[in-house]
Amino acid sequence: MAGNALHMWRVTDIAWPTPMAAYDACMQNVKELLRHGVRVAGGVDAFDIASSCRSLGIRDVDSVALVLWSGAHPRRHDGKNALLQVELRTHLKWPHTIFLAAALDMLSSTLPQATVLLCDEGDWADSVLIPLDHKPLITFRSHYGTFDGQNFRSEASGFDDRHVRPWDTNRFVGCGLAGPFLQPFILGQKEIDVPKLASLVAEAGLHVIFVGEYTCAQSRHCLRRALADRTPSLRMLCDRPWETLPEPKRGWKRGAEDVYSLQQYREDAREKVRKRHAPERWPFTAMHAANNWLKALPRGRACVSDFGHTMWPAV
Question: Beta strands of the chain (E only): which ranges?
Answer without folding.
Answer: 9-11, 39-40, 64-70, 115-120, 129-132, 137-143, 146-147, 150-151, 154-155, 164-165, 173-177, 191-193, 207-211, 249-250, 260-261, 300-303, 310-311
